Amino acid sequence: MADSGLTENSRSASPEMAPRIGFLERLHSPERPILVFDGATGTSLQEMDLSAEDFGGAALEGCNENLVFTRPDAVKAVHRQFLEAGCDVIETDTFGAASIVLAEYDLETQAFAINKRAAELARQVAAEFSTAGKPRFVAGSMGPTTKLPTLGHIDFDVMKASFAEQAEGLIAGDVDLFIVETCQDVLQIKAALQGIEAAFNKTGQRRPLMVSVTMEATGTMLVGSDIAAVVAILEPFPIDVLGLNCATGPEQMKEHVRYLSEHSPFVISCIPNAGLPENIGGVAHYRLTPTEMKMQLMHFIEDLGVQVIGGCCGTTPAHIAALSALSKELKPAARQVRTPEEQLARPLLQLEPSAASIYGTTPYHQDNSFLIIGERLNASGSKKVRELLNAEDWDGLVAVARGQVKENAHVLDVNVDYVGRDGEADMRALVSRLVTNVNLPLMLDSTEWQKMEAGLKVAGGKCILNSTNYEDGDERFFKVLELAKAYGAGVVVGTIDEEGMARSAERKFEIAQRAYRDAVEFGIPAHEIFYDPLALPISTGIEEDRLNAAATVEAIRRIRQDLPGVHVVLGVSNVSFGLSAAARIVLNSVFLHDCCTAGMDAAIVSPAKILPLAKISEEHQQVCRDLIYDRRRFEGDGSAKEGAICTYDPLTELTTLFEGVSAKEARASGPSLADLPVEERLKQHIIDGERIGLELALNEALENYGALQIINTFLLEGMKVVGELFGSGQMQLPFVLQSAETMKAAVAQLEPHLEKIDGQSSSKGKFLIATVKGDVHDIGKNLVDIILTNNGYEVVNLGIKQSCDSIIEAQQKHQADCIAMSGLLVKSTAFMKDNLQAFNAAGISVPVILGGAALTPRFVHGDCRSAYQGQVIYGRDAFADLRFMDALMEAKGAGEWDNNQGFLGAIPEGLGLKPEPSGDSPPTLAAEDSQIPESAPAGAGPSAEIVNSDQRSESVAEEAALVPPFWGSQVLNEAEIDLEEVFAFLDRNALFAGQWQIRKAQGQSRQEYDDLLIAKAEPVLQQWKQRCIDEGLLTPRVAYGYFPCGRQGNAAVVFDPAKAILGRFELPRQRAGNRYCIADFYRDCLEGPQGELSPTDVLPMQAVTMGEKASQFAQELFKADKYTDYLYFHGLAVQMAEALAEWVHARIRRELGFAAEEPTALRDVLAQRYRGSRYSFGYPACPNVADSRQQLDWLGAGRIGLSMDESDQLAPEQSTTALVAMHSKARYFSA
Fold first, then answer.
1. What is the per-residue pLDDT across 486-520, written as a single tens digit (0 to 9) for each?
2. Which pLDDT value is given to residue 756?
């Protein structure tokens, strides 16, 4: 792409219009004004109470873009109200005006006209308010569409063409700039930018470009890109403004804006929602007031240099008026940004040049290393890859890629060149899988540019193209540069020209110098150029090959010295072609070292086939260097004269040295734990969770220290480090538990050596913990038990489903220093509050920790704290509980604790005692109470219509009844269920991050996190999977069936196969928006003359369990102190129950005739890209857990050992039930 920063005379103005001040002219003027965008257009239109007729009929209702024709006055009124509020920029009513979105309303042929008309309307209103002192601008809004190209929803070229058409219409309507906004997929941004560029070329006019991405509350874009990846990917494009909008309020954007301030070369924009949406009565509300929003944005402007601000969902003219006032009061902090004149040169300013996957970045410059480019996924050089490619074994190819992640590659070279195959199709198929399965940037490697472009069209990250050269003259050389520019990629340039492959250092440098001039003038900056000076073999024995390596090393030195800013990359292993595996490893390693010393900063190499120089003997290094620099020796004067006899040939010497030596034998090993002093060794045993050698270390320590001193000084110090590592995100929970197991084993060995004093406990304190009444979830409680027990505390673990009376009785018996109550369910929180009040009556006042997924700090600090006479603490995790207990016992020992007042001295930080900052929001619960319905209209405010009725939703029409394969229920037992098939439905993210708590740490890149999962979590999963199969630890059983049904009001009425009524499920209805109710997904009952009901539809139901053995085995592991195994197996069993539910659901879809619509990829299954939906009781759309009881009866779930206890909990724990709806509109929602 060429420079987009042209001034206003690049756009022709209408003859009757006075010349306008350009957007960039205003933005980059000496006063550097803060420019304010308008607020939520959708919110404003909704408040006008428009009817279906206003949109052009019922079929077009909700299509705001069509209002530019049907109600232009309404659109202009929205523009006018924001301009009156003082905004500088209004956005056209074209957020969803791409043809691929308009097609949902059959308006795709009107895309150009709608965009042109919308721009004209905005231009007319802007002109009314624009003055020389305060010019007003029109931004052509281009939303993200409804497709994510990274996930394969749409072809790149189709999306690009749609954006191009939209851009042409906006140019025709005379917008001042483009804003590509609410971006959720980096590949979608590339398609939009290319589409806009095509429109620029077609019309001969350019406009400034602004890109605004949406970072979800999770901290990434919807497809998983973090803000660093966004900046690295978009840096190559001619963008003028880059920032954030939508999804969250300004508070949640703070860290992202800070990163932009420190690294982005562009002007920064921040257009937040009016806070996080809250679900009130089924409608999304935004609580941030205009004044609060203004105050929060002050920091962004004054400290972080944000220059463009505005409002998204929930923002009103009042919000924009407050921001307009702010723009007059403040000046943005100074920061370096690219000016329009610098678009071609692309100065990095404060940004580090990087490649990027869609998830995270990989800097080109690696501290203390070179950029490692994995070489194994190359059909040109790997027989295995060719075989996998020929078999179209994409999973096998992805596995090869993952193997290189384990080997610490930074970038993945991808080459599918294989004679007889469709290379472009292969590149698309492979790269589309790699981008979502491997967290490494890609180097697209081919001799044909068409294949590289095929990969670029499915790779949202920032790739490197390998390669271009002058072998076929300028045409192909510049074609690859065009791709690099259009898709924002780096490029490898080989030292080959029309005369062929350069062999001497001088020729290599001449070609590099020519390419440097051409590339930089074309708009590819030096920091994106990787020169490949070609490593040719020195192992052939042919005379002309002897100096190949020396020439390459010298060429590297010249290139880095005389061509500033560029990089050098090399396929290192070519130099040793033909030698034995052991000799190749050693020669490659020495050659690599010398190339790096000369200035090479990237290499295509297999890290597993390289050794650190320190592990190669001096003798072997010398022989390799003699070969690299051709230091043969000859009789006489030692020179290689014709006919001279060679007395020393390093090639022969190297071959002899490694004759019969395996590659494995060529490697050396590093230092071991045994090398440390015993004190450090014990501490490290705990940190590493290493039990091998522990007994010897403890025996050695006992020679000089007492057992209690060993525990308190060395072992507990190791556990303290473990806690710190866990708290900082550097150690994941499974490894914490390994440390706890090691601690337990060490204490057990030392126990006979501990002195016993009658009536005196050696523990640091006593801790009582229980899961409250009605809750069977014990994993969190048991983790707390493990951590505290192995940090010196006596833990009284009462177990699950504990009544208030039993907790009080236990406390009166044990006199614990602290009580902890755990619960996963929302109803558990009510029991906790009731228990606190009962503790008061019983005279209990010790501190109480409350923990579990259903709790939030605000609920604990609000309702719960006010209900108890003592101190109430929010227990975020096991180590938070440990920190509190350590502080509590220290304070009690110093006389600085009172049960009623708490800490009498300074309150230690981070203990969950200090209340949240005050606000007007009520205390909230987590889990279902905080879910926002997908159907709630964005920005709907208090004036939204609230409807409470039992009428069918207008969005859910009746559909044809389905024919089930049978009526009633059937049972499948473990003999009929292939466990391997169930494992295929396992949600690894839920298992690894949710159950095993191996979570991405703050500051950890997505690549590093995925590397961790591949290296640590995946092998454990495979081990436990095999163990479950071999030992029969999981006994999957299913009761499912099909029952006649029908809708009556807000109820699903269920009949037996003989059409007699069994019962009904009363289900809640959304009070606004689409007014969804699960009952609407079934046809209405027929009503006879006497009011008798008849079924008209089918209700599939399912109940699944992993069996009682799974629960029993988990408890056996816990009681045996096998903490890590307990965590792994318990979590796996829970997620396998969910996988079994997915397996049965898929079976139901197939049996009802929807096999053709089944997604093939698990990620699509988990994203619910199939027909219909599955609803489990206890969630917002069907909240009455007790309804599962009649469902179990009807299914005959007792036959599979599944029941419900008096507190409405399923037993065994690893079980779940669901209703299934096959209606095409059935999706998850919150009622």
1. 999 999 999 999 999 999 999 999 999 999 999 99
2. 61
Q: Which helix (H) or strand (E) holds 1041?
A: strand 1037-1048
| β-strand pairing of 496-497 with 602-604 | unpaired
* Cβ 93 vs Cβ 73: under 8 Å: no
Contacts of 1043 (CB under 8 A, 6+ apart): 967, 968, 1054, 1055, 1056, 1057, 1062, 1098, 1099, 1100, 1101, 1194
- ω into 1176 cis (within 30 of 0): no
Q: Distance between CA atoms of 56 and 66, rounded to whole angstroms?
A: 8
Burial 466-494 (b: 16+ CB within 10 A, else e): bbbbbeeeeebbebbbebbbbbbbbbbbb
Taking the C-alpha atoms of residue 1095 and residue 1086, their distance in angstroms, rounded to an integer, is 7
The values of phi and psi at residue 1202, to 5°, are -110, 130
CA distance 160 to 232: 21
**Beta strands 529-532 and 490-494, pairing class:** parallel
Three-state DSSP string of 372-391:
EEECCCECCCCHHHHHHHHC
Is residue 1217 within 8 A of residue 1176, CB to CB? The reply is yes
Instruction: For residue 771, list its beta bridge partners.
Output: 822
The CA–CA distances, whole Å, from 729 to 279, 302, 724, 1002 equal: 31, 32, 9, 7
**Cα–Cα distance measured from residue 211 to residue 200, given in angstroms and rounded to the nearest whole number:** 17
Rounded to an integer, what distance in angstroms lies between the CA atom of residue 319 and that of residue 1217? 46
- Which has the closest alpha carbon to 228: 358, 361, 357, 336? 361
Amino acid 413 reads D
Tell me: cis bond preceding 1212? Omega within 30 of 0 counts. Answer: yes
Amino acid in the structure at residue 352: E
Residues 6+ apart with CB under 8 A from 1153: 962, 963
Quick: pLDDT tens for 1106-1163: 999 998 998 898 888 787 888 889 889 999 999 999 999 999 999 999 988 888 888 8
Q: Closest Cα to residue 231, out of 198, 197, 194, 257? A: 257
- Which portions of the chain are predicted below pLDDT 50? 1-18, 668-672, 915-947
CA distance 1214 to 1136: 8
Q: Beta strand 848-851 with 872-874: parallel, antiparallel or unpaired?
A: parallel
Structural Rg of the chain based on CA atoms: 34
DSSP structure string for 198-236? HHHHHHT----EEEEE---TTSS-TTS--HHHHHHHHTT
Looking at residue 724, what is its pLDDT?
75
DSSP per-residue codes, 818-838: EEEEE-SSHHHHHHHHHHHHH
pTM for the full model?
0.59
Residue 582 backbone dihedrals phi, psi, to 5 degrees: -65, -45
Encode pLDDT of 438-497 as tens digits: 889 999 999 999 999 999 999 999 999 998 999 999 999 999 999 999 999 999 999 999
Instruction: Say how far apart CA 727 and CA 722 lie, in whole Å.
Output: 9
φ and ψ of 426, to 5 deg: -65, -40
Question: What Cα–Cα distance (Å) separates residue 642 from each residue in 546, 626, 634, 637, 639?
Answer: 15, 20, 11, 13, 9
pLDDT, residue 917, reads 42
Residue 405: φ, ψ to 5°: -60, -45
Q: Which residue has the tokens 């009425």?
A: 1053
pLDDT at 740: 80
The answer to whether 870 touches 841, Cβ cutoff 8 Å, is no
855, containing H or E segment: none
Alpha-carbon dihedral sign for residues 1084, 1085, 1087, 1088: positive
Lookup: tokens for 268: 């920064």
Query: What's the pLDDT score for residue 824?
Result: 66
Alpha-carbon span 995 to 1133, nearest angstrom: 10
Supply the pLDDT for residue 989: 87
